[in-house]
Amino acid sequence: MMHQLTELVVSDFRSIKGTVTIPLDAPIVLIHGPNGVGKTSIATAIELALTGDIAGLKRSDEKVQNHLVNRDAQEASIALRMAGGTRPETTMTIRGGAIRGMPLLDEAGRTFFTDRCYLSQSTLGRLLDIYQAPTARDPSNTPLTNFVKSLLGLDQLEALIDGTFPAGHKARMSKLSGDFDRADQLEGRLQGEQREIDALQRNQDAEAAKLLSQVEPLRSTLGLSEDPSAAASHLAETEDPELLARHEARVNNVIALQFQWSSFTTDEAQADRAALELEEAESARAVEAYSAGPGSRLAAAITSIRTIFPDLADPAQTDPEEARAGAILLVDREINRLDTLLASAQTASRSIGTRDQSISQHQARLKLLNNQIADIAGDAAGLGQALAALLPHVTDDICPVCDRPFNEVSEVSLRTHLSEEVARLVGQSEKLKSLVAERQQVQTQVAELERGRSAEAARVIAPVDVTAHQQRLAILRTAKGELDALASDTAEGARIRSRHANAARAIAQLRLRDSTSAEIRSTLTTLAETIGEPAIAGTETTQDVLTRLITVTEAAQKAAIETHTDRKIAADLVTRLKALAVEKAERAAQTEVRKEKLAQLTAAQRTVKRERDLASSVGRAATEARSAIVGRVFNERLNAIWRDLFVRLAPNEPFVPAFMLPAAGEKTVNALLETVHRDGGTYGRPGAMLSAGNLNTAALTLFLALHLSVRPELPWLLLDDPVQSMDELHVAQFAALLRTLAKREHRQLIIAIHERPLFEYLSLELSPAFVGDKLITIEVSKSPEGSTRYKTNVIGFEPDRLVA
Q1: Is 81 helix (H, G, I), strand (E, B) or coil?
Q2: Which terminus of the chain, N or C, has fewer Cβ atoms within 10 Å?
Q3: Which residue pairs from 508-511 have beta carbons closer than 8 angstroms and sit at least 24 positions apart in sequence?
Q4: Rounded to 10 degrees, what is the CA torsion of 353, 355, 358, 359?
Q5: b (16+ CB within 10 A) / e for 626-641
Q6: CA-to-CA distance for 263 and 281, rounded, in angstroms?
Q7: Angle between helices 143-152 and 542-633 (to 10 degrees)
Q8: CB-based contacts of 564: which residues, under 8 Å, 6+ apart?
Q9: Helix pair angle (463-485, 487-531), 10° resolution
Q10: 22: part of which helix (H) or strand (E)?
């Protein structure tokens, strides 16, 4: 037999704990065991090894692969061997919800096995619903319908019908192609578009005429051609972007000269030159007198402290009062700093002496405490513990150490003496704890005093530094006294210097006016030559020349601005005229293209009409052919096989399930189920007409009918407890059916059975019937520890000795 499954090895998979090795090299394999021992796990293991998936379990739980490993293990493994295939065996492992390994079947084989070869226990009761449940939004897209279509081979025929269906009506053709609908409306739309274009052209012609009337006055002024392109080129070539800037610069230059000239004609500039020169001389002598007297003293005072403050202002180069005030501010600040520093150092020295005395006293106390602790520690620590440990062993006056009677040396009993001695030593121990605590306190105080002494020592200044600070203070106080004494003198010196500076400035302005006046007149002469104005006469005053040139340059600037505005307006008008001409040419070209397209679409419409008629004829012929095929296959193949199987298993049921025959001319094939009475007539769905037991029989026989209706790509049938709710008659017929499938149809059957009597019955009914035939039975159970146990029995053909 081709594709014969030969052996399955399962370890720690689902309810199987441990490893089981199951032989499969027989036409029929029966697996028996109570619920929960692993029958379904064995079927699922075969499915996983063949397909790499567990589709039957995933219908109930999409995350079931996270729970495939036995709860007492970390990893599960499945090994399946096969004869006659391209690959002899495979091994699959499951760990952490991940399945690893290469299944035995390819993609097409996996689909065939899942749909046609494996009927799980959980699927049987819902098989009819699963077959008829839509897998998409289309209600006709069910697994049963897809199988029927595949069986009938109608994919190409239905594609032909679907493809020619729109040809039967113009509205449906329009949905397929917008060009079809547009072709009918193209002529009217083109005429409407042409009317709109003509109206737009008339409006733009009127706009162009208006623009030409606006350009006309500017042609002679700017020298423009009547051709818009030539006019635009002329404007671009004659453009001078710096013209306005030059005129503006000339106007601004003349105005600046006018302002400069006006600044020299004020009343102050016209003051008496002799009075100003006298004032300047007297103030210079006053400055010399101040510099020789108070000024010299101020310079000496500031020089005396310049080594301390190198950034002090020089009173000879700045305001003397500001220099004096700045120096006093720095001197006062430095005197305060040094006084504070010396006082802090003196306080720190006194504090260090006090702290040293306290440290000496605490260290003497610490030495005394250490001596006392040493005296007590030797007696109390070891001896007290030793006597306390010895006391429980003293029961009379015999010393347990020297073995002599204690009453020889004392009238007190030995036990009493030991107790008193232990009490004394315990009292010394308490005193020892008190002394240790006091020592800790004294050590803490000494540490705090030493930290404070270190802080105070950081503030102490060395004697040499103290002397330096005191000398610096002496210099600063001397300088401060001198600076305070010069307060009134420096204020007068500042006034004298200000008077001299004002007089010197006035004299300098008079001298500057004489030289600047000549420069202004020279500049005006050059400007007049540049703009083409008459030369400046010797009798013409500077103010008259300025007035004349301002008038001329402002008039030239105004004319340049007007010309620039005219050029900009002309450029905008010419650009718009060019755009209108381009648009007119483009519309003319589009009109020609539109007319040509209309002629082509009109010819295409005639061709489409012929093609529509031909497609409608082909569609009608395809529909008639599909109806004939559907009727023949449904009646002669599918319904015949299903009826034969169902009547075998349920001979007393009057209602027989069947595929509903599609009506002639239907657009699509939809596989629906109904029931047919044996005496004639069609009735409702199987779920409404059949009992629960016969409904399971209908599902089982439908699964087998679909398996037998197609070419046996895989000769396997894996059934997990298929005899649910069957009575004895159904079971007997089912056994006969299984025998037929195995012996005549050459299918390899793997069947899991729950009930023990049924297992024994099928083992008997399906036993080997000829030489070379074989039956394998497997009984699965659980040990008290929960491990999986199994027993296999390979039954070969044996001649009936009684008959022989």
Answers
A1: strand
A2: C
A3: 509/264, 509/268, 509/269, 510/269, 510/273, 510/276
A4: -110
A5: bbeebeebbeebbbeb
A6: 26
A7: 70
A8: 243, 244
A9: 70
A10: strand 19-23
Cα–Cα distance, 119 to 131 (Å, whole number): 12
First to last CA, the chain: 30
* Cα(572)–Cα(584) distance, integer angstroms: 19
SS3 letters for 272-323? CHHHHHHHHHHHHHHHHHHHHCHHHHHHHHHHHCCCCCCCCCCCCCCCHHHH
The secondary element (H helix, E strand) that includes residue 607 is: helix 542-633
What is the DSSP secondary-structure string of 140-185?
A: T--HHHHHHHHHHT-HHHHHHHHHHGGGG-HHHHHHH-HHHHHHHH
Q: How far is CA 660 from CA 655, 657, 665, in A?
A: 14, 9, 15
Token pair for 82: 């096969």
- State the helix-helix crossing angle for 487-531 and 273-292, rounded to 10 degrees: 140
* Apex 448 CA angle, 442 and 450, nearest 5: 105
Which residue do the tokens 């220099």 mark? 323
Q: Residues for the chain: how many in total?
A: 804
Q: Are 120 and 61 in contact (CB under 8 A)?
A: no
Residue 42 has a pLDDT of 92
Could you tell me whether strands 774-782 and 76-83 are parallel, antiparallel, or unpaired per DSSP bridges? unpaired
Question: How far is Cα 359 from Cα 456, in angstroms, rounded to an integer?
Answer: 14
Instruction: Give the contacts of 283 (CB within 8 A, at least 6 positions apart).
Output: 496, 499, 500, 503, 504
Q: How many other C-beta atoms are found inside a 10 Å radius of the C-beta of residue 508? A: 11
Read off the tokens for 622. Answer: 């395809």
Give the gyration radius of the chain's Cα atoms: 62
Q: What residues have CB less than 8 Å from 495, skipping those under 6 apart? A: none
The pairing of beta strand 682-683 with beta strand 673-677: antiparallel
Nearest to 350 by CA among 265, 459, 248: 459
Q: Which amino acid is at 449?
A: L
Neighbouring C-beta atoms of residue 803, cutoff 10 Å: 5
Whether residue 469 contacts residue 284, with contact meaning beta carbons closer than 8 Å, is answered with no
Q: Distances from the Cα of 466 to the Cαs of 136, 348, 353, in angstroms?
A: 102, 14, 19
Q: Which residues of 234-259 are buried (b: 16+ CB within 10 A; e: fewer)?
A: bbeeeeeeeeeeebeebbeebeebbe
Residue 791 has φ and ψ, to the nearest 5°, of -135, 125
SS3 789: strand
Residue 116 to residue 162: CA distance in whole angstroms: 29
Alpha-carbon gap, residue 22 to 42, rounded angstroms: 9
Largest alpha-carbon pair distance within the chain? 171
H helix intervals, 391-462: 414-459
Q: How far apart are CA 133 and CA 131, in angstroms?
A: 6
- Is the CB of residue 28 less than 8 Å from the CB of residue 102? no
**Which helix (DSSP H) or strand (DSSP E) does residue 682 occupy?**
strand 682-683
Structure tokens, 99: 């399945």
Residue 683 three-state SS = strand
Task: Give me the average pLDDT of each 10-residue run along the chain (804 residues).
Answer: 84 92 93 89 91 83 86 93 86 91 89 84 70 61 65 61 62 60 65 76 80 73 73 73 77 77 55 65 76 78 79 77 80 83 80 83 83 68 65 74 77 74 70 78 83 79 78 80 77 76 72 64 73 71 74 79 78 78 80 74 71 70 62 62 80 82 59 81 83 80 78 85 72 84 87 88 87 90 90 85 54
Residues 751/121, Cβ–Cβ less than 8 Å: no
Predicted TM-score (pTM) of the model is: 0.46
> Scanning the structure block, which residue is given the tokens 């402290």?
305
- Classify strands 76-83 and 89-95 as parallel, antiparallel or unpaired: antiparallel
Q: Residue with structure tokens 């390994």? A: 101
Q: How far apart are CA 106 and CA 325, in angstroms?
A: 105
d(CA 219, CA 228): 11
Q: Which two tokens stand for residue 704?
A: 């087998």
